[in-house]
Specification:
Shape: globular
Helix content: 40-55%
CATH architecture: Alpha-Beta Barrel
Structural class: alpha/beta
Strand content: 15-25%
Largest sheet: 8 strands, parallel
Bound molecules: zinc ion
Number of strands: 10
Strand order of the largest sheet: 2-3-4-5-6-7-8-9
CATH class: Alpha Beta
């Protein structure tokens, strides 16, 4: 009989078969049911079919769907309803905890502050057993001053479960050095720091690692282009947040087998697993672990890698104590 292995991350107080999703975005994770329900009351909103695609040819495709979603999130009540449905969906999928980005910039058009959005998300999760910890995602394109203000906000929002600050947006136009001061302040204030990078160039990974002194990079595919960069990530103990369905669905669609996961792992880099935008990429965290198992087979180095990286998550995620377990069945 073929042996299959299942990987699961768990929180300290949750069942051993529960998952932690360490990289997800609120806006892209909200389940389709929410949009269907809201659309029946607001037929002027973008049709739910336009809020996700099987494959995104480029960032414009992706942004179009994302912006359509934002139309639905114009009030604290709507955000609360979306968060409640998301939490229920996660619970059904045996998720015990999420580390979830949200993008305050996107809510400014609705005159909503980061604090209002964070509070509404937590209200939505309150009825569930899912622990939600938030990362404020800053868009590079809005510049360093804006990121500085977001760091100030994040430091004031600990009570709303905000644990960190992230960087997204155009990695080629805005090098990480522009955000060095803000990230230094975030880190000295005890916030987790992470950056999306390495989707377009290996240089952006080096830049983020050197300029931002981070312990996690999101995606980071292109790091695998250069053995010296793989070595640098391993030596600095920088984990890569791997989101397999996201990789497969972006830029016109890519075969999963081309993900440089094994290059990173065999080079000593720790990985952690997330869904990125579960609804937009039609996935769940359980599916991501299944995909991981399909890709790497029975390889104990991966177990070790996930354990190491998850231990580091624990340092940064406050009350969310994340451990990794490795279950064998079949
Ligand atoms: Zn992401």
């Amino acid at each position: 009989m073929k042996r299959t292995r299942h990987f699961a991350s768990i929180t300290q107080k949750t069942p051993a078969d529960a998952f932690t999703d360490v990289h997800t975005h609120f806006e892209g994770a909200i389940p389709a049911d929410f949009f269907m329900k809201e659309f029946s009351a607001h037929p002027q909103y973008p049709h739910p079919d336009r809020l996700r695609l099987p494959v995104y040819n480029d960032m414009t495709d992706f942004a179009r769907c994302w912006c359509g979603r934002m139309v639905y999130l114009s009030t604290p009540d709507a955000i609360r309803r979306a968060a409640r449905m998301l939490a229920a969906d996660l619970e059904r999928n045996h998720v015990a905890a999420v580390i979830m980005h949200f993008s305050p910039d996107e809510y400014f058009r609705h005159d909503l502050t980061a604090g209002t959005v964070a509070g509404a998300i937590q209200d939505g999760f309150r009825m569930s057993n899912v622990v939600c910890r938030l990362i404020i995602d800053c868009v590079r394109d809005n510049g360093p001053d804006h990121t500085g203000r977001m760091v100030e906000e994040a430091l004031l929002l600990r009570n709303a479960g905000v644990i960190g600050i992230g960087l997204g947006g155009d990695e080629s136009a805005h090098p990480a050095g522009e955000f060095r001061q803000s990230f230094r302040k975030a880190k000295s204030g005890g916030l987790l720091t992470t950056a999306h990078c390495g989707e377009l160039s290996v240089e952006s990974v080096v830049d983020a690692a050197e300029q931002l002194d981070i312990r996690r990079v999101v995606h980071g595919y292109r790091a695998a282009d250069d053995p010296a960069v793989i070595r640098m990530l391993a030596e600095k103990g920088i984990a890569v947040e791997v989101c397999l369905s996201s990789y497969a669905c972006m830029y016109g669609g890519r075969p999963m087998s081309t993900h440089p996961l094994m290059k990173l792992i065999t080079g000593g880099v720790d990985i952690i697993i997330g869904t990125d935008d579960a609804d937009m990429f039609t996935t769940t965290i359980a599916r991501e672990y299944t995909l991981l198992g399909d890709l790497v087979g029975n390889d104990d180095r991966i177990v070790e890698s996930i354990r190491n990286a998850s231990d580091r998550c624990r340092m940064y995620s406050g009350r969310v104590h994340i451990n990794a377990t490795f279950l064998t069945s079949g």
